[in-house]
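USER:
Before I trust my own judgement here, I would like a peer's view. Write it directly below this note and I will take it from there.

ASSISTANT:
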Amino acid sequence: MEDATGSRIYYSGLELFPGQKSGLQELDQSVFDGTKLGPGEVETFEFQPPGSDLTYLAAAHTVTVGGETFGALVVAKPRTELRSRWLVLFGRLGLAFLAGLLVAAGLVWYLSRRLTKPVLALSRAADQVAEGRYDAEVPEARSSDEIGHLTDRFREMTEKLADSQRRERNFLMIVSHELRTPVTAIRGHVEALSEGLADDPEAREASLEVIRAETERLARLVRDVLDLARMEADQFTLEEDEVELRRLLEQAYQSFTEEARRRGIDYACSLGADPVIQTDGDRLLQVISNLLDNAFAWTPDGGRIALELAAENGTIAVTVSDSGPGIGPIERERIFRPFWSRAGDGTGLGLPIARELAHALGGELALDSELGKGSRFELRLPAARAVRDRQRRILRRGSAGSRKPRKPAGQSR
């Protein structure tokens, strides 16, 4: 054992086997007396063996037989050797600590790069957006943490800003086109009248009629744009009257009978109820007129258009259906965006204004359509607004039942 561990083993105390040698080196009791240890005790001490200049560090443990302590076994090792072992241990601990620092530094560098790289990319993209470049490249979110969430929200913001910019450009192009056409017509007829080119009374009356129609077209465009802006800014006000919905729908229906006859369209009106509601008759008529105008814009000659009125389950429903080409799933939401037109002509304000007005009137506008089978728009109004006591109904002069219909706001599909 001494050769294996490099330690020296001593015995201090009474003879274990009287008259026989144990083979252990005897430690002088003047150095250490093992008989003074209690059972199971351990004691450490230093000593210098005779004839040696080395100081040993020793640990003694009692030897007990039959409950009596005879002495102690002492394991000793030179202090210098223990010190060298400690130095080796400290050296290894130092190397391990240094390696740990290097690993920790590497992890900190990696994590900092992983965190700061997307943040720096977002910062560059934000600078581009601030300069008005909404097509800035936004990095893909590689995680679901706060940075990934911020990246997704920032990308959505830039896409909406880019879409808003495109809509603004489209609006300017559409409005400039819509304004240029009537202005050109008005200018031409005014010049013709001022130069005396339209001396004939009929020609002069025709020119004045064109000027009147084009002026109304300009006024309608300006009114639609202002209405939409007010509705989006929550600055839109409504006037309430008691409105006979049946008479209002008959009025809207009559406004398109001539176009239906001219184009050979099967134009039907089915009024299965006669409710009286408290609402803004002019705005309600505008919604229905816009829906009918949209239906006539997309229904081919010889097609079918139906206007229906029904009241059931606490809801009043006004339906406009057509046999046009229908609307695909992708375009069902786009047609309600201002200035978006599937055909590329018209202001694209009719259906957006109709839906905003429907919400302002306390109802909703629903769409059911299938490609190749036509479309069905349904205006739903709460029946709670209906006036129950028809004997108390007072139709004011100029209310919706007798007002002239508003001009349609323009194609949207």
In short: The longest strand covers residues 68-78.
